[in-house]
Each structure stands twice: as C-alpha cells, then as structure tokens.
Amino acid sequence: MEPVIHIQGLNHYFGQGQLRKQILFDLHARIEAGEIVIMTGPSGSGKTTLLTLIGALRSAQEGSLRVLGQELRHATKEQLIQIRRQTGYIFQAHNLLHALTARQNVQMALDLQPHLSQQEVRERVDAMLCAVGLGKHLDYYPHELSGGQKQRVAIARALVGHPKIVLADEPTAALDKKSGRDVVEIMRTLAREQGCTILIVTHDNRILDVADRIIHMEDGHLSETTLGISA
Ligand SMILES: Nc1ncnc2c1ncn2[C@@H]1O[C@H](COP(=O)(O)OP(=O)(O)OP(=O)(O)O)[C@@H](O)[C@H]1O
C-alpha cells in the first residue's frame, strides 16, 4: 500500500540567483496511514519548511513528494487545494479569530463542506469541542480562554473535518507541562479514533513518547532516530 506521505530525493531552495541557498537535502521518508511521527531538530534546520511542503502550502521544487497518492511537484492549484482540504493544521500560535467564539472558530473549518446541513455542522462542532474538554466553553471568546484551552480549540478546528493528515508545528510550545501533555493526548486519541496520520514538529522532549516513530532534521538532512518508542 502506498504510504500517506512518500518523500524521495526531495531538495528545497530559498532565494534566487547568487542568494539561492539549499535548505533541504535529498530527503527520503515514508509515513504510513495512522502513524504518529514526531520530527525534532535544531532551530533553522528545515523542519517547518518540510511541514509546509507536505501540507501543500508551498511548492515542491526538486525530487518527489507524494501526499495521499498525489505527486505535489508540478501539481495544479486544484490538486494542491484538494490536499489542503484533507489536512488539518495546528500551529504554535493558535490563529483563532478573536471576534468569534470557540464554536464559531471550529465551525469555520466545516464551511468548505457544503454537503453538511446546519444541524449536522452544529452537532459535529459541539461534539468535537466536548471531545477536547471544552463542552462548557462553547460560546467563550478566545480572550476568555487559557492558552491550553485556546490550543484545544485549534485542535478541534483541525480535526472536525476528519482530515486524513494532521500537521502540527510546535503545538505545545506555549503551554505548561500539564496542558501540553493534555493537548497531545487529545490529538492522539482523536487521531486513533479517526485513523488519521499525524506529523508533529516539536522541541518539547516531554511529549516524545506519544510518537510511534521519531525522525530528526539536522542542517536540512533527515534521519531516523533510535529513540522511537511505541505508544
Ligand atoms: N521564506 C524564506 N526565505 C528564505 N529563507 C527562509 C525562508 N523560510 C525559512 N528560511 C530559512 O530556511 C532555514 C530553515 O527554516 P525552517 O523554518 O524550516 O527551520 P525550522 O527547523 O523549522 O526552525 P525552528 O525550529 O526555529 O522553527 C532557515 O535557515 C531559515 O532562515
């Protein structure tokens, strides 16, 4: 079976002409359906660049990057949008809209799914917010929520559309130990229930054990570490 994410000989460059600089070097990786993979590595090593390439948020330049069976190099705009529709993104800055309640922020993620009735949307949003422990905070605005609660809204928003892939960039960076732990446990539980594949970039050693596998980026080179602990 084809892996959900299949990277072969991927290179990436920033800048033009004399300023052109190679950031990613001959990357190879396979991530299978349902796997939870953590990517570690020093600041500036290229982790976010790779995450945004996989998420179809920037164009693959050289080599092969197949996501959900679609080659992203030379992919059309429509093909990239199809990949984005099947991907949930969770970033360090939770990017919630301040003028909207928790419920409305999560609901936005379903606006792209016209086949759902208003009633179904409401039920799915509320169930997802309950699943992340925010059943009593449905109508709270972001400024009324703690950092951990805001991050949980962001997780609910990323997962409510039942994405096939979740990409998370430092999801626990702004959180204390307990909230960080809670957030990754929720991601893991929901991912297991929905069967989705998760790739988390983190510097947070406290959450490494949620991973099935750990990969390491160093100066644009990717390696498998021996720290992999089965969850
Ligand atoms: N848009 C850009 N234009 C030029 N260079 C960039 C751009 N984005 C990132 N870079 C450079 O690419 C390299 C990799 O950056 P990237 O953000 O992928 O690293 P990272 O491993 O995610 O770092 P961090 O852990 O600090 O987030 C860095 O040297 C960075 O300065």
From TrEMBL:
PROSITE patterns, alphabetized: ABC_TRANSPORTER_1, ABC_TRANSPORTER_2
Q: What is any one of the record's Gene Ontology cellular component terms?
A: membrane protein complex
What GO terms are given for molecular function? ATP binding; ATP hydrolysis activity; transmembrane transporter activity
Q: Which residues form the ABC transporter domain?
A: 5-231
Q: What is this protein's record name?
A: ATP-binding protein of devA-like ABC transporter
Swiss-Prot/TrEMBL keywords: ATP-binding, Nucleotide-binding, Transport
Pfam families per the UniProt record, alphabetical: ABC_tran (PF00005)
